[in-house]
Write a structure and sequence with these properties.
Blueprint lengths: L1 H15 L23 H10 L3 H8 L21 E7 L2 E9 L5 E11 L5 E7 L1 H4 L4 E4 L39 H6 L28 H8 L8 E4 L7 H4 L8 H9 L85 H4 L6
Helix pairs in contact: 2-3
Length: 356
């Protein structure tokens, strides 16, 4: 009898440990891509609550926050996400990157923090195309009434992530320029942060753990998809994104191979989920398409997929002082001298239109 009661108790405790959805909760959705296991809404929320980039890196890798559920190299352990910052004038790019192995890294997402000429701030997080597909962009709802996410946070305490409900305070509108981490990025004491960690070398406080199935992961984060403080968009607000980051993103062949092989589908445990609604495709405000009239000869078999570029180290930082290559002006075409008259012919025949 005691054994039966003990078994029932263990069963009840195990059931309580699973996320519970009410009838008012949204139906689980999934992109069907590796990025399903890193909720960018939650990442941006943690960024808003962080005081420094070091705090931010630690918070997204904290097991108790249940934010990171990525296993890109498929070793049955959660991957460590390191933070790399780049700065170009009033634009900051906060790159989230995972060491895949000793030689390869994979960008996961990039947070853009920019200031325009009027001093207005904008913050967006853009998921990497290999993990989230094209144009997966999350940003604060700048026009939402009743305040911003956690407006009462002043940056004087440890980052605490709430994974059960949204405890947002109502109040006056508070722009992203007042976020503690944004203030830090534009302060005189800020320095470009490059995470010191890499494959095989991690902080002493971090130990990997086994990932959970996506349905369980959704249970920790479903409340983010119903709040009005963050939303998806199809517009990249910072035009420098395209030439400062997009063309330099770091990719891993391991991730591409696993994705094509369907390795990441195991996280769904045989379940099927509806996909989120599509967002209007983003358009670069700086790139203007021009017709190409020059005939191009293909250099490889069109059916052969291109191998993505990998970068074993830190992404290159663009050097704004480096001169751009210019095309040398074309040399003038040589012209032939006029043909001399034939002395053996009469002058009338040497003249233009004369008889030949």
């Amino acid at each position: 009898m005691k054994k039966a009661m003990l078994g029932i108790t263990i069963l009840l405790l195990s059931l309580l440990s699973f996320p519970v959805f009410s009838q008012n909760d949204p139906e689980p959705e999934a992109l069907g891509l590796p990025g399903d296991n890193l909720n960018l809404y939650a990442v941006l929320d943690v960024f808003q609550k962080s005081k420094t980039l070091e705090d931010f890196e630690r918070a997204i890798n904290d097991k108790t926050n249940t934010i990171n559920n990525l296993d890109l190299n498929n070793d049955r352990n959660i991957d460590y996400i390191k933070v790399i910052s780049q700065k170009n004038g009033d634009s900051h790019f906060i790159i989230l990157q995972v060491p895949i192995n000793e030689k390869e890294n994979q960008d996961v997402a990039v947070i853009e923090v920019g200031k325009d000429q009027s001093g207005a701030m904008a913050v967006q997080i853009i998921g990497d195309e290999d993990l989230y597909g094209k144009n997966y962009i999350v940003e604060p709802s700048y026009e939402s009434a009743g305040g911003t996410p956690n407006p009462g946070y002043t940056g004087d305490k440890t980052v605490i992530v709430n994974n059960t409900t949204n405890n947002y305070n109502n109040g006056g509108y508070d722009s992203v320029g007042s976020w503690p981490v944004v203030i830090y990025l534009f302060s005189p004491v800020y320095y470009v942060y490059q995470s010191p960690f890499y494959w095989g070398y991690y902080p002493s406080y971090w130990h990997p753990w086994a990932p959970v199935y996506y349905y369980d992961y959704w249970g920790y984060h479903h409340h983010y998809y119903t709040n009005r403080y963050y939303h998806r968009t199809g517009i990249v607000r910072n035009p420098t994104y395209y030439y400062n980051y997009a063309d330099r993103r770091t990719r891993s062949t391991v991730v591409v191979t696993n994705r094509r092989a369907g390795t990441y589908k195991a996280t769904y445990n045989g379940r099927t989920f509806k996909k989120p609604a599509e967002i209007t495709r983003a358009v670069s405000p700086t790139r203007v398409a021009t017709p190409n009239t020059r005939k191009v000869t293909p250099t490889r078999n069109p059916s052969s997929p291109a191998t993505p570029r990998t970068s074993p180290g830190t992404p290159r930082t663009p050097n704004p002082s480096a001169p751009r290559a210019t095309t040398s002006p074309a040399a003038p075409r040589a012209t032939m001298p006029p043909r001399a008259a034939n002395p053996r012919r009469p002058a009338s025949q040497n003249a233009p239109g004369g008889r030949r």
